[in-house]
Amino acid sequence: MESGKYIIVTGGAGFIGSHTVVSLLESGYSPIIIDDFRNSKKFILDRLEEITGKSIVSFDFDCSNQEKLREVFSTYEVHGIIHFAADKAVGESVLKPLKYYENNLQSLVSMLKISEEFSVTKFVFSSSCTVYGEPDQVPVDENAPIKYTASPYGYTKQVCERICADTAYASDHLRITLLRYFNPIGAHPSGLIGELPLGVPNNLVPFVTQTAIGIRQELTVFGDDYPTTDGTCIRDYIHVCDLADAHVRALESNSDEEVSIYNVGTGVGSTVLEVVNTFEEVNGVKVKHKIGPRREGDAAQVYADNKKITEALHWKAKYTLSDALKHAWNWQKNLDESR
Length: 339
Prior knowledge:
The protein is 40% helix and 19% strand. It contains eleven helices and 14 strands.
C-alpha cells in the first residue's frame, strides 16, 4: 500500500472539487480524484497538471461502486475524504427527484461505508446553505433552524447531513466536517479552470459571463421588488478558491467533536444587480439584462455569519467580489477560445 497524505476527492474534476485539488497540492497533500465525469470534463485534469506542475491521480467511476472504491483504498493509505460528488441543479431536482435521491444519498452512504471499512478518520462533506430554507433572520449562523426546503436537491443536503451525523456518532474514530457553502463564484486566477455548466446555467455568474460573450441572448433578473437596496435578491458570493482553502482547513482541524458544522461565506451580501454592475465595471463589457417576475422559492436575502469558521479554523476570504468576477470572465474567454 502506498503511504502519504492521500486525500480522496469525489467529484474532483467539478467546479469546487478541481479548485480544492489545487489547494490540496499547494498544501502538501496528494489528492486522488474519483469522478465519473457526468457533470465535468476530462480536460480539466490536464489543466490541473498545468496549474500545479504535478501529475494528477484520477479514477473514472461512480463513487457508489464499492468494489472499485475498495481497490483504490487498498492501494493507497487514505488520510481523508472530501465528498463533493452529487447532482446539484435545483430545477432539475424538482423534475427528476428520484435521480437526486438515488445519486446524492447513495454516493454518500457508499463513501461513509468505505471510510469505516478502512478506518479513515477525516471526512469533509460538501453541504449548502439551502439547508436553512427561508431563514428567519440574516446573517445566518450555524444555529439557525433547518427548515423546509422546496427542492429535492436541498432536501438531499439536509438528509445527507443527518446521515453524516448519525454515522459519526456511531463511530469510534470518524470525525466529519459539514461545510455549508453560500454562493461559490469565480475561477482560478490562471483562467485555466472554473465553473463549467453543462447546458443552460442554473447559477447567476456563469449566466452573466455567457451572456456577455454572446452564448446567451439575455439575462433575466428574477424580481426587483424585494425589500433590498435595489429590489433584487441578496446573496453571499464567495470566491471558489477561498472555498477550496476552507476544505484544507477543515481537514487540518484537530477538533474532538464527532461533527463540526461551518458556514463558508464572506459574511457580506450583494444584490443581483450589484453583481451585474460590478461585472460590467471591472471587465469593461455590457451584460444585456431585463427584469422578470419573481422566481418561486427565492428568499429575499441570505448571507452568512462566518464568525465560527473564522475563529475555529482561522479561515478568512481573501478575494473580493470584483476579483471573482474578473477571474470568472477570464475563464469564460479562455473557454470560448478553446472550443
